[in-house]
Fold each of these.
Amino acid sequence: MSFHRRAVLPLLLAAATVLSLPLPAQAQSAYFFPQATDAAAFDAAIPSPEQFLGYPIGSRYTRHDQLVAYFQELAKHSDRIRVQEIGRSYEGRPLLIATVTAADNQARLDRIRQQHATLVDPAQPRSAAGDSPVVVWLGYSVHGNETSSGEAAMLTAYYLVANRSAETQQWLRQSVVLFDPAQNPDGRDRAANWHNAWASDPASSDPADKEHVEPFPQGRTNHYFTDLNRDWLALTQQDSRPKVDVFHQWYPNVQIDFHEMGKDSTYYFEPSPKSMHSPLIPPASYAFNKTLAKYHAQSLDALGSLYYTGENFDNFSPVYGSTYPDFHGAVGVTVEQASSRGHVQESVNGLLTFPFTIRNQVATGLGTVRGAVTERSGLFDLQKDFFQSALKQAAQQPVKSFVFGDAHDPALTRRLLELLLLHRIEVHALDRAVTVDGQRFDAGSAYVVPVQQAQFRLVHSIFAETPPIKGDVFYGSTSYAIAPAYGVAFAGSRSRIDGGTRVTALPTVQGAVNGGQAGFAYAIDWRDYNAGRALAALQFKGLAARAAFKPFSSSTGQGHVDFAAGSLIIPVAGQPLQGAALLEAVTAAAREAGVQVHALSSGRSSDGIDLGSDGVKALRKPAVALVMGEGVAATEIGSAWFLLDQQLHLPASKLDPQQLGRIPLDRYTTIVLSGGTYTGIDAAAVAALKRWVQAGGSLVTYGSASKWAVEQKLAEGESLGKEEDAADADRRAFGDQRDIAAIERVSGNILSADVDTTHPLAFGVPRRQLAVNKENSVTLQPSANPFSTVVRIDATPRVNGYLSERNRARVAGSAWLLVSPQGQGNVVLFADDPAHRKYWHGTDRLLINAIFFGNLVNPAKARG
């Protein structure tokens, strides 16, 4: 750690002067680029950010459209930069990649890229990379309200494009610098509009001033409140996928992710603590963090800025923008600047100004380019050795192949296949039936992933259990495995399974009605994850649908077909459309959802219940309200919003918590309360919720909202599980308290649980064993009603990730999902977010069931 407090305080005050005075452009350049002492060092034909925007950088928050326009302006004036739009955010804002390198390199960019790509091919010699430039990725504004980031992107790009020094020209000849100037444009503009709207002149440094206190949901996350810094592996968002595609075109050698932290901190850069390193990654990869850190230290030392390294932030799994590159032979680095969260704010280090925070980020970015160019040869060796060692490490693994797929759930099978292809993982179609760990996988509906491949470490991260860890201080979750979260059948084979043709593209989705116009009804198997989307589409058209609460079999034009519990029946009789018009509507829903619909000519089943049975129940059209506002966990309720919007295409009303006691609730069939703090909901709102539930409403809660619902007697008769043990009274070392607290934290674990697959909330779940995510300390007692505990964590749960023995004992045997009947309605209690981070499809289908079957899950009604 380096301390320069005497130097920092004058600089903070100097930044305040820059903030308050409209200085000439060269004065701003002197502040942000103190190393460029000659005013003629910059090409006058290239406009600086201040000249283009019309205000000094750091005097206001630059909107995303202005940032985009500036990068495009640079491209108009210089042959050193190329700007490419790679996609759009959910709110329609452009996603950019700007490529900065020497003009000669720009002219042969494709050849450079192909030459550089030989580094990730274990079969190619190191010499194949030749004299290709080192590749540097600078990623900004993944968290939209980390204010210095996007401003620093403009200044750093300007310096590389406009600076005339011999050093800069050398950097550009020997490097390709990729700028992602705003990974999260929707969140960035949310924050920009807030900070600009509440800015004062002169600026207020009071931390309690509105400028510094963003309201829900703040600008950290994207449109659907997704933390995009945790989406690099799951790739659930359209904001994430284009940049990962570009990443795999270039495979950078160094990748910096620019962040901010609390105002009273200083500046952080890696290396991270050794205890937070993944055993999958070669030690040489982490060692190179120390090499690069020298250049970051030099840059900040030159400014006299405080910084520290090696104390926090993990490098454990490939979910972050600074760890995904580590899993591809690069040096990934998180940098964190203390945030002014506005123009100026009081801190323990004095007045922390916006320009000061920006300047540190600029210095680190330029220091990164300097370091990458200087260490080019070592970085190339590192990347080549990384992929060659992946094959050696894979050969030592007991599991030789992973196989996945489910003939009854083509939607999730396809979705997992898509994820693997996005990560450039080698996949083969299964060409013969195999049985692994008692699970049968059939040709035509399953795929094989060989462990022995260059992307072994990413394969392991997606399919395998977390490598052994010590349980030291972790910044984030300790398990991010995707395959268990998807809920699709998969298994690891200790013998190599030779698949058939390598899959390089997704098979075409072919939703259709099999059998033509139905004489009696149309049926859709509920095991297909996309069946819910088809149901929403049919109900939107005004068609009546029913669900079979027990399995049945029917003879169709395609032969004998088995349908699982929950399968949909769209009878011909009683519909607003008939004949060809009904067939057309059902066909459109099938195609849109990508599901197979079977035409049935008779209500008599060949096995199981007949279609006129009391066990085939009419479904109501859901009307869902999502409660979101101050106190609500934005990322959790955002996952529910995303599920309804993007998976079901089912519109939902978004209500502020304070509205619950002020508006009629009877228009809603389902109200969802995610985790959060609900102390602001008054007694009148609680009473209104109770009346609504008693009258037939279905209240869905999870995490701390479930705890609140039990405490408020909304779920009367239910009780919470074991509380966290009180702190040990034994004397402890003061310096150990942070580590002890972290070790006992519930930190994102995958646990094994038992599910009642006959319960309507579990329809479509293929097996009694279900993986669930445990992210918080809330536990629920199994319901006193023997029919109402839907999912229960195993008495001796299998744990993927780190969970202390004390926490294992607390969660063992607890309920993860239960139904609490209340009058004509119910409260559906989840212990954790079932749609966690938008990729937990194995459990988000439980939430889908709660939405569609919520009025049919009370034990007395289920017996009906």
Amino acid sequence: MRNIATAQTADISQQVEQGVKSYEAGDIRGAIETWQKTLDAYKKADNAKNAAVVSENLARAYQQLDDTKAAIAFFNEAITYYGAAKNLPQVGRILTEVAQTYNNQGQATKAISLLCSNKFDIKSDKKQPCEANSGLQIAFTNKDSHTEVAGLGILGEALRLVGNYDLAIQYLEDASKVKDSRYEILINNSLGNVYVNLGQLWYIRAKSAKQTNGNKAGEFQQNAIGNFNKSIKYFNISLELAHKQNNFIGQLQALLNTIQVSYRSHDFNLIPSTTIDDKIREAVSLTDKVTDSSTKVYAAIDLALLPSDFKITSSITQCSKTGELGNLSNTESINILNKAITVSKKIKISRVESYAYGALGHFWECQGDEAQALKYTQQALIAADQKLAAKDSLYLWEWQAGRILKKQNQEKESLEAYQRAFKTLEAIRSDIITSTRDVQFDFRDVIQPLYRELAEFQLQQILQASVKSDRAKSEVSDALETIDSLKLAELQNYFGGDCIVNVLNPQRVDEIVDKNTAVLSSIIFDHKIALLLTLPPRKTQPGETLVRWVQASNKILQKEELQKQIKAFQKSLILGQGRPDGYDRTLASQLYDLIIRPFVKDFKAANIKTLVFVQDGFLRSIPMAALFDTQAQEYLIQQYAVGTTPSIRLTAPKSSDRHLEKALVLGLTKAAIIDRQEFQPLDYAEEEIEAVKQVFPNSIFFIDAKFAPETLRTELGNKNIFPVVHIVSHAQFGTITEDTFIITGNNRKLTISELEAALSNLRGKANTLELLVLTACQTALGDDRATLGLAGVALQVGVKSAVASLWSVQDKSTALLIEEFYRNLKKPGMTKVEALRQAQIKMIKLTGEESEFASPAFWSPFILIGNWV
């Protein structure tokens, strides 16, 4: 960041100097008023050189006011004027500053485009050439080392924000080789943050691996520890450099980063608690030495709200169970927060002031003083609402107000606050969720709880109502909207992008289902689970939604108890493939009684033939088709066709004219080794491929070595039309998208992003993207997030429907099921969900040598995702 530009030539107006004096005195708005008049004069005089200088000054002034939109506009003006004045080095420098501004706003892809290229592949692991007019290329051409090191550092930080940590490290290490003391502290901090993110990533993988691959869990944990240790090393270097340069801001940032990594790596005890105590005290003392700024305020908030519970990842939305804070006394925290409010008022930035008041309100909320908490929360709302420049904080304080008012038993006011928070968050959700990976890691704590708390509040209001009124129906509709928005938010968070938004269907539940289809949605709360059944309209009455808690013996069943039963049921299905006694039908009947039985009369009254499930959390991990009705001695699939969709709003509309004449078939029959993990050969893959060939004789096949990511892209980019894409291979769905992939030939991976990119070639072609079939899938069992990958795969790649398995199934039985499914699907008038149902029923009735495949362990893991028609 350059200092404020000052007069360079004798003809620069005295007003420019006056603006500089106002700026340096802290009168930012006065400086803006003066410089704006001067800029207008320079424009009239067609003085590009001086207009550039003043535009640059105005941009930095608006940065100080946290008005990013205005700052970028004036930076762009400065670029135009410097270009007209043939000052390319200065154009390069301003481009890097605008890129940094975009980074600060979480818009990293825009930063990358300005710094290097709008064709930059953010998924690549290799450095890429920059375009001629990009910030970095201008710096390289003009041998401007100052801009070069700044640009490389900003590019590295942008790549960190989009989650490409390996490439971020490469660019940041390049920046560190360009010796420039002004940037050494920042670069080391950025490197530290990259390794923190990598540590988190491996830590998440380690936790997931404990449930699926115990041997890998230890290795992943060591990777996490190694990366956390590297982050600490870089933060220590940054702190040492800041001490040498007497840079208080640099010292404070390095200390805060070290404190944060100690929280994130607490399970490994990498930093002694006494060392962290010292660093906290040192950081607190530095807040009095640092110049008044937004950085100072946010640092003070972080220090004041340090929690005592290391499991807390968002101190601005969570309280420890005891209400106690970390290393600071309550008096110290209050003093720090009050100082933060004073500074925020002085610098006159409404967003910063909003956070300062909101943080103090949250402090009192955690202490149980609702009156004080509400007082400061309302002041935070006033500050956030002044210019609507703080919407990202506005939803936090509305949500906070809702929690406080609820504790005060002001239910009407509380619900209204929750609803305002929901509407605000809905407006900005995509920007928040897709902006940085940091927010993705903390999604469950900073965003998801708002949806769940509001939905629970709405359902409680509905269940308490004594009569069915229009208002009650409206509240049910609102609750469904909240739940569906949660599903969308979870998918966006999992995939870390906005592709999901592009397939949004504005239709509501009651507009997309036909007369014989019911939608059963679930939502999990802290201690209970709600089921919502949406029925189609009848001749004499409109459609309605029924709401019930999951109950056993007329008592609400605790979430933990149902989760235990779900896990046992899932385990019995998987074991059932290996031995006859592995599958326990008793568990299947218990779950039928809990989830299906309460609605059976409603199904019969409405003549329901198809059930579509919109499941939540751990309920996604089991196949509903395998639930067993002991009274009728039938599986659920024998009673109804069963489909699933992650969100009704994301369900693609049915095809007007479906022609399933041929398929693109991709298969792997051989063993493979991916990331040192062995995958066994699929012995019956050839039979499955042959079964597909029998049904679709005009199909195109790529098997083993011919099955490669680039082959897929090329084939789908040709003029061929493939309504069906069938993949016979191991497919893994992990807790994060990096662990979600399909194995191709030659021990290679096809990532979910590569699959989406390849299948996007089919968009816009007639009668395409009808069905994606994935056999031999493997989800991270017991992991709620892993099932998001499976549920969202069809949506992410733009396919109307997908058939996939919840876990890997013996491939001989798979070949039988898939062939029957396809034969059914080609029958006139046959829906996809009914085609799968008939195939599964045929498996149930198998006799002779194949009778073992009648067990739901073999047929039930296959589910239809997306459009069921």
